[in-house]
Design a protein that fits this description.
about 130 residues; single chain; 5 helices; rod-shaped; mainly alpha
Length: about 130
């Protein structure tokens, strides 16, 4: 669920939307269940949705943090690259965009591995398969 929260964050889902969706989901289940809906059903669905929101929220916040760290690393690398001067002409060198993207991809992979041990996220596996 945490990983799913990360993915939903890339879609632009906000935490407040999770609460609204939970209310709508619970009401839809209530209307379509063949049994008589009781207060216990309501409490059970509220309990279930609280767990979903907690896990999704954790994933969404982790994704925001990871994205910020990657942007900081990218900015730091760009600053380092642009301040290097060419020894012959004493002029600032341009940053190679392809190398920059490759660097960020490599950093993301190392960051993911350091946070999750030796396990890759599903998105990283998909990216690796697409590259091959």
């Amino acid at each position: 669920m945490v990983e799913l929260g990360k993915v939903h964050n890339t879609y632009g889902v906000q935490l407040s939307q999770l609460h609204s969706f939970g209310d709508v989901l619970t009401e839809s289940v209530r209307r379509n269940i063949p049994l008589k809906w009781t207060e216990e059903h309501t409490k059970a669905w509220q309990w279930f949705w609280k767990i979903v929101v907690d896990l999704f929220s954790r994933g969404m916040l982790e994704h925001i943090e990871e994205k910020k760290e990657l942007e900081d690393l990218k900015r730091e690398r760009v600053e380092n690259e642009t301040t290097k001067t060419d020894e012959k002409t004493d002029s600032t060198t341009d940053v190679d965009e392809a190398a920059d993207e490759e660097f960020i991809f490599d950093l993301k992979g190392r960051y993911t591995h350091s946070r999750l041990g030796d396990h890759e996220s599903q998105a990283d596996k998909k990216s690796d398969e697409d590259e091959q």
